[in-house]
Amino acid sequence: MITAAPALAALSTADHLARALADPSTVWLGGRPDGARAWPQSLAGGASGIALLHIERARAGLGGWDTAHTWLATAVYGEVSAAANANLYFGAPALAFITHCAASASSRYLRVLERLDTATFTATRKRLAEAHQRINRAERPPMEEFDLIQGLSGLGAYHLSRHPDHEVTRDVLAYLVRLTEPLPDPAGLPPWWMNVAPTGSPHIDYPGGHGNFGLSHGIGSALSVLSLALLRDLAVPGMVDAVERICAWTDQWRQDDDTSPWWPGYISMQQATDHHVHAALRPRPSWCYGVSGTARAQQLAGLALRDPARVQTAENAILATLRDPLQLDKLPEIGLCHGMAGLLHAAWRMATETDNTEIAGELPRLADRLITALDQDDRDPELLDGAAGAALALHTFGTDSAPAPHWDTFLALA
Question: What are phi and psi of 288, to 5 degrees?
């Protein structure tokens, strides 16, 4: 339970941010930044992401549906992409996700949601066919095949939220299981090891590729989606084994002791060969690669496997981070991906999941830290790294509620 004063401060700040982001015609007065991330259909940086903020506020009765509708209309303006670049963060699936959230409270969006679902089904099935062909060739996966932002973990997160009993949901889960099944490899690398750098492209610094733990681009996203499916009693053969295989690898690379554990963001071939990750390579506690994401994935896996020791280790990891000023200082940014908002929200999710009062007790200080940073920040409006995401994290902390369908599905946190 969040006490009154911190909750009111969080809600007041979220309201201030939302009012500043109310009118699409004024949000990008200086012109939209270059790149696809700012396109209207982009969840990360475009109108879709800001629409999600206003939808969530309207669902809670703290914002108007007129504002949410204006942003939805801005997001769907123009030709909707259902091409090879469509994913949870862009195009038809991104629009389906935010429309799904809106349709949970307003029947006016059901017809457009059906059309977006049809496009998302087509995109998902095409991606699944390509992924299975790659596995049949015993090749290593490209990052965009299975990650959350571009790949099938993200599409699976959407389908699990939108229609958990649909055939396409089971097909994505079955693919994620197959992703974890060993490939022929004399070095003993996991089957999700990629022959590219963490950027997703080949690089001279990663001649043997890398293994990625993160929620944004690594196996953490598959771990979260599979664990959430198990917790929702979806029966797909091999899911428990798949979660256990991922956990065995993350356990192998977990660092420090049980009171302050952490996981690498990714490892190189050299580190895999040396069986060593230097403490200096500890990632900052962000959602994308750090403990904000990896600890939540481990908590979900522990709950799914009925493994209280794993749950406790994950909660120890986030609690130690929340109590460590040096770790908090590594997150000066405000956003969900790289900043304080991501840590605040992941920690809120973890505290809420198991009624962990110790984690909950640290949240007001972190919320205040985020509010202070927002007062000093020249804020980008976007969802993933900017004001919209910070507002959503503060809104959820202040209301102490996030009703289904969960807005943080796109982060693989719920």
Answer: -65, -45
